Amino acid sequence: MPSPDFSGLRVGLIGFGKIAKFHIDALRSLKVDIIGCFNRSEQGRADAEAYGILPYDSLDALMKERPDGVISCVAFMNMHQHAKELLPYGCPVLMEKPAGITLAEYANICKRADSRHTPVMVAFNRRHYGVIQNALTHIRSNDATINSVLMEWSEPPQAVLDKRGQASLDAWTFANTSHGLDLLTYIAGNISKPSFTTKFGQNGFRTTVLTGVSEKNILTTFVNTWEGPSGWRLVIGTDKHQYRFGPLESGTIIDASRNETALEIPEHDINHKVGFIEQARFFLSNIQTRDFSPHDLASAAPAMHLCDLMTKELI
Question: What is the location of CATH 3.40.50.720 in the chain?
Fold first, then answer.
């Protein structure tokens, strides 16, 4: 199947940092016209220009160029305030994750997007990992039933605490936990009645386990630990196979006879930041329809609600 032609689309960027460069790489690969980047700081504008991107010193100046869509790459701690300025333009937005660092911020962003009829896609790029999509395709092709999903999400928080203090750690905990919880609920569905088990580790940070049965009748487990080396692991159990990812960028299918088969990693996930090409393709393909379901702002709600509950356990 030929790749769609995106060469006629004009996309603007907001914020220039490490994540923006991954988006630029994906857009350039797909032959999209990047019209420029708005950044408040002089250094950010200089960095964008050095990267071959036309810098803008105001959001209004960028939006006057009438882009077909914009990608918001501002820091997660500033996303809520930035959304107040961006959403009234009504231009389709790919918003970096998470959409707010509290449940209240997320709800406010949703309200503003709805009132302005601004379509928003949230850039939870792990949904678009090729190996995970290939696993879900394999499950469907085998007419299998998912029975369980296990996610282990381990991060070292001490460096954040030492460098930026408790307030930044609280925001970082919410933001980082949302990445894993979004992938969990994307696969398993909403978990309306989760249970939590929490313990204090030797380093003073809490380890929390979330368990529950999702709306799809899938047993779910999410372990958020801060005591060991960082790393993420995902296990999907079905009535016919088990799918293991650890790290998430690669995966294995295990059958009833314990035979293991590696899941194929698409070439674009080898040559580019994992998940960013397919994420960009989905965004660009749906700019004209202004419908980003099932990756729209509303689709983040299950993870954001769980994240609110879980971080209250962790902090």
Answer: 10-125
